[in-house]
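Project outcomes to date are best conveyed with an example. Our students and postdoctoral researchers have been running inverse folding experiments weekly, and each run begins with a structure described purely in tokens. The record below, which covers 215 residues, was selected by the lab manager from last quarter's runs and is presented without edits.
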């Protein structure tokens, strides 16, 4: 920011060996020389046309004009800075809004794609909460698994497991189904009954002495 000013400099010729001004608190009688008023600390010269002593090179007006110019330039710079900051804030707000929309969309997709994982986590957390102090998540994962909507119960090192789905409760050996409950009936490939079978009001009983009895 450039500030321009102007001033008038008055040069006074003096003869060698003579003082160019008189220093005193009151106006001197010699009006041919300059008077340095020690009361106001100003240099004055006598104006014969007005009959008064006037201050030499009074820059008060120039300084006032300079202050006004500086004030105008300063206010202009402040306004430009304010406008720039306002524009920057608006751009940041727009960018933040756009980013927030993108983040919300991405979060929604992640939640949808991870629904099955969340279901497993909730089930495991529920079991863990109920068995606090009894089993840890790591211990539970050794005998309980949830895969593709099927809950498997059985030790990881055992050939036997029980599988619960939306359609049946199955009993497996080496991944082969050997019996299952579905549609209100029990289905089993082979059955061994040691003592007794009840069929409604009838009983089929095996007696070691009498053999097979139907009552």
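After processing, the design step wrote out the following sequence:
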């Amino acid at each position: 920011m450039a500030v321009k000013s102007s001033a008038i400099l008055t040069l006074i010729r003096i003869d060698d060996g003579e003082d160019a001004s008189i220093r005193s608190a009151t106006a001197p009688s010699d009006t041919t020389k300059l008077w340095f008023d020690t009361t106001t600390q100003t240099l004055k010269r006598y104006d014969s046309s007005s009959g008064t002593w006037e201050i030499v090179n009074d820059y008060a007006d120039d300084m006032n004009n300079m202050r006004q110019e500086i004030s105008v330039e300063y206010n202009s710079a402040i306004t430009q800075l304010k406008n720039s900051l306002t524009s920057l804030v608006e751009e940041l707000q727009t960018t933040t809004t756009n980013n927030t929309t993108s983040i919300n969309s991405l979060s929604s997709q992640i939640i949808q794609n991870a629904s099955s994982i969340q279901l497993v986590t909730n089930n495991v957390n529920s079991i863990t909460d109920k068995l606090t102090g009894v089993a840890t998540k790591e211990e539970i994962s050794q005998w309980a698994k949830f895969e593709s909507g099927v809950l498997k119960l059985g030790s990881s090192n055992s050939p036997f497991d029980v599988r619960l789905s939306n359609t049946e409760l199955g009993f497996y050996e080496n991944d082969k189904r050997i019996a299952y409950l579905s549609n209100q009936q029990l289905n089993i490939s082979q059955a061994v009954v040691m003592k007794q079978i009840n069929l409604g009001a009838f009983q089929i009983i095996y007696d070691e002495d009498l053999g097979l009895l139907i009552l």
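The mean pLDDT is 76. The radius of gyration is 54 Å. The training component of this project remains on track.
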